[in-house]
Amino acid sequence: MENNIKRGMLLGFIGILCFSLTLPATSIAVPYFGAAIVGLGRTVIAAIMISIIFIIKKESLPNKKQFKSLGIVAVGAVLAFPLLTTFAMKSLPVSHGAIELALLPLATAGFAMWRGGERPSRRYWIASIIGAVTVLLYAVYLGLGQLQKGDIALIVAVLLLGLSYAEGGKLSRELGSWQVIGWAILIGSPFFIIPVGLNISVDMLQAPIEAWISLFYLSVVSQFLAYVAWYGGMSLGGIARVGQIQYLQPFLMIGFSVLFLGESITWLTIVLAIVVVICVIIGKNAPVIKKESHHKNSVLRSR
């Protein structure tokens, strides 16, 4: 059990590390390819690769119940998040988006209780609230109190992705982590072919190499490989517990924005990053119990 938790935390960290490059890569690619290609085209490219893998491995079709869950994953991870974050990155800096995405752990934990059958302990919630308040105070310090269209898009993206994370983590236990995101991409991609085709232009061939690398990264890593690690981590270590690692994501994003986009970083960011890391350490060690187990214990006590 302990080994599974450690492996789950490691896979979760790898997934978050990969996700942390998503907003910087999006910011680089959008000016050259546009929102439709970056937001939806990545799914079409990923679908081609996954189709080849599924054919080679002769993957069997999911059952009806699994298809319903895959539909939820597809709406959040394949459609809403890429499109809404791409829209937001047209007007917001990466550091702005990174801070708002820090609310993902609370959204994931809330949906985990509803869909994943987990009951995080009081210590988990205290750690989550402290982490969330930390990033919100940082947002206020940067003057992000004014709600823009990009902010609304990111908040909706956080809610839908939180549901997708919880559903995907639960489904990974029976279907497999890479199969979950793979099937979700295949379910969503047919709806994107026409919009993507209508937005392809010859001018895109003039895009610089860094824009093409960013688009390739978004298609192969952000849209597929990162989810393989992330869902695999949640299936091994628990949705709520591994979900705490998401508190590292905004600061990793800010670090990558400094490295690749030349954005500045302050000592306050570093101090708050340390506070968040402490919250993650506390939260990951907090007990998490199943609803079924809680119900059984209640019945035994009543007897």
UniProtKB/TrEMBL annotation:
The topology of this chain with respect to the membrane is:
Multi-pass membrane protein
This chain belongs to which protein, by name? DMT family transporter
Give the residue spans that cross the bilayer: 39-57, 69-88, 124-144, 150-168, 180-200, 212-233, 267-286
* Broad class of where this protein is predominantly found: membrane
Which InterPro entries does the entry mention? Answer: AA-Vitamin_Transporters (IPR050638), EamA_dom (IPR000620), EmrE-like (IPR037185)
Keywords (alphabetical) are: Membrane, Transmembrane, Transmembrane helix
Superkingdom in the source lineage:
Bacteria
Question: Which family does the similarity line name?
Answer: Belongs to the EamA transporter family.
List residues of the EamA domain: 7-138, 149-281
Instruction: List locations, semicolon-separated.
Output: Endomembrane system
GO cellular component, as recorded: membrane
